Amino acid sequence: MPCSNSIVVSPAPRHELSPHLYMQFMEPLGTTDGSVEAAWDHQNEAWRPDLVEVTRDLAPGMLRWGGCLSSYYRWEEAVGPRSERRPMLNLLWGGVESNQIGTVEFVDFCRQVEADALFCVNFESDGRLGWANPRVGGNRCGNAEEAARWVSYCNREDDILRRSHEHNEELRVPFWQIGNETSYDPNGFDVETAAQKTVEFAQAIRAVDPSVRLIGWGDDGWAPRMIEVAGEYLDYVAFHHMFHPSPDDPILDGTNYRRDPQKTWEVLMNAVSIHERKLLKVRSEVEGTGKKLALTECHFAINGRDRGDVMASWAVGVSYARMMLLHQRHGDLLEIATLSDFCGTRWQVNSVIMPTPGGRSYLLPVAHVMRLFRRYSGTHAVEARGFPATLDVTASRTENRVFLHVVNISRDQAVTATLQIEGHTVRAGRVWELAADPETEILQSCPDVIQVVEKPLENTNQWTFPAASVSVVELEI
């Protein structure tokens, strides 16, 4: 029998919720995962239409280009006539990138799926000498002047180089990141060097376009010093979080998760607490400074084939949904966030899998919950309280519509809850629901096994949330 509880909402708007909380992150991953080359139809010189279609449906508010590749990416090799573009060695991920997909193509993709573009610049290879001057491939170190030329190419109406490539209209890229995982390599820049160089890069970029929004690197305790030195130029401080939900227990590794579904579920439901500790630490370092947070890379890092078979399971989808609720709770400071590596042919940490050769791109569990929350959410957070431990709940509001984001973390028990909006009468409602057996896996052979179901809310004062479900309840007040 379902148990009965209450969800009480105080509808006064609190902080605004950014559409960039559901960002997707795209990086050419070479031989490890055909993330970009496989997304491009080289015969027709266009993005795969099935990828465009599924990404439009996913509806990310932002797409980021970069990652570790940024430390050896020379953007000018990937613009202009295709016959003149210079292929590059992918120093970290292996293989060769054709550079047929570059700045113009990525911005075109962003426009097709109605997402803001974010580029991560080559920050003097983040101080990594092996990437700056590799044995093969020439000098790969980009300076502040090169970064500024890139901003000009995208955003200045009169940029000579872009116009020579017959792109008369500016590309308009509003977000730029300076530094990627800069603190992670002890042989790279230290915080003092990185902060001073961030000032140099920011000054060069803002001289070209003062309107851009800049992100500086602040993980591993770097945020306070980065803000002290370069804060006047920065809008955001970036950090990453790739983590194993059970680092001392192999339950999630390989196919172990299939042997003990209950233990797997318990570990995955607790993963949000690990993520919360990380988020609270970084938050404490920027709170009161006027800077916002940008979580520009984040996902589980689990051992196994293709970075974790368990990632295709609905249990992981529910786990990620809890992390998305955490992002909403911290939306007063956290404005940019992701939970996947977006698209690829193999990795289960992606949002979208692109079967090759041919086939139709499809969403993995993390993408289903990101799509749900992105599509059905209010513009401002409001308070939700009183709910039981078996439910995880946030609420938001747009004018006279209140949205409840509800995750039932019970693996096998439905929960019936009364719905109360303080000071208001609910006139109508509906529910969008994702629910499945936690062991259900999304595979190429069954890509549509999990789908959102819309249901009428006939009793506006009560709803039963299925076991292992992720729901959005819309209430008209």
Q: Any idea of the CATH class of the largest domain?
A: Alpha Beta
Helix content: 25-40%
- In the CATH hierarchy, what is the superfamily of the largest domain? Glycosidases
How many angstroms does the end-to-end distance come to?
A: 30 Å
Please list the strands of the largest sheet in the order they lie side by side. 22-21-24-19-18-17-1-20-23
Structural summary, described in words:
- With 477 residues, this protein is an alpha/beta fold.
- The protein folds into 2 domains: 3-12 and 381-476, Immunoglobulin-like; 19-378, Alpha-Beta Barrel (TIM Barrel), CATH 3.20.20.80.
- The chain is 25% helix and 25% strand.
- α4 packs parallel to α6 and α9 runs parallel beside α10 (365-375).
- It is globular and about 65 Å long.
- 51% of the residues are buried.
Summarize the structure in short.
The protein is an alpha/beta fold and 477 residues long. It has helices at 49-58, 103-112, 129-132, 144-155, 160-164, 191-208, 223-230, 261-286, 314-329, 365-375, and strands at 3-10, 24-26, 40-41, 46-47, 62-65, 88-89, 96-97, 116-120, 175-178, 213-217, 236-243, 292-300, 334-337, 343-344, 352-353, 362-363, 380-385, 391-398, 401-408, 415-421, 428-435, 453-456, 462-465, 469-476.
SSE arrangement:
Blueprint (H helix, E strand, L loop, with lengths): L2 E8 L13 E3 L13 E2 L4 E2 L1 H10 L3 E4 L22 E2 L6 E2 L5 H10 L3 E5 L8 H4 L11 H12 L4 H5 L10 E4 L12 H18 L4 E5 L5 H8 L5 E8 L17 H26 L5 E9 L13 H16 L4 E4 L5 E2 L7 E2 L8 E2 L1 H11 L4 E6 L5 E8 L2 E8 L6 E7 L6 E8 L17 E4 L5 E4 L3 E8 L1
Parallel strand pairs: 1-20, 2-5, 5-8, 8-9, 9-10, 10-11, 11-12, 12-13, 14-15
Antiparallel strand pairs: 1-17, 3-4, 6-7, 15-16, 17-18, 18-19, 19-24, 20-23, 21-22, 21-24
Helix pairs in contact: 4-6, 6-7, 8-9, 9-10
